[in-house]
Amino acid sequence: MKRLAPICVVQSGRDPAKAVKLVALKEESSWQRGEYIGKQGWATMPGEQEPDGKVAQACATLLIPTS
Questions:
Q1: What is the CA radius of gyration of the chain?
Q2: Which of 6, 21, 38, 51 pairs as cysteine with 44 (C-beta 3.0–4.6 A)?
Q3: d(CA 17, CA 54)
Q4: Residues 6 or more apart from 6 whose CB is under 8 A from it?
Q5: CA distance 65 to 59
Q6: Exposed / middle / buried, residue 23 (Cβ in 10 Å: 0-12, 13-18, 19+)
């Protein structure tokens, strides 16, 4: 899943509302961030119909790194 997470990050970058959505993502609890990313469609891989939860969680750690 870690190999696919960068694709999720790229897809988030193509979202015209990315800035607003990242603010909302930061407000989510860490365990709900993956679900939020899935709902945005960023974790839906090319050729797939549904988001991948593990990709979404890995994507969240790339978009909002923890210290």
A1: 11
A2: 51
A3: 23
A4: 62
A5: 10
A6: exposed
**H-helix segments, the chain:** 5-13, 18-27, 33-40, 53-63
Mean predicted confidence (pLDDT) in 19-35: 96
Structure tokens at 37: 């990313």
Determine the structural domain holding residue 57 and report its residue range: 5-63
46/7 Cα distance (integer angstroms)? 9
Q: How many domains does the chain divide into? A: 1
As a whole number of angstroms, the distance between CA 38 and CA 50 comes to: 8
Q: Which amino acid is at 35?
A: E
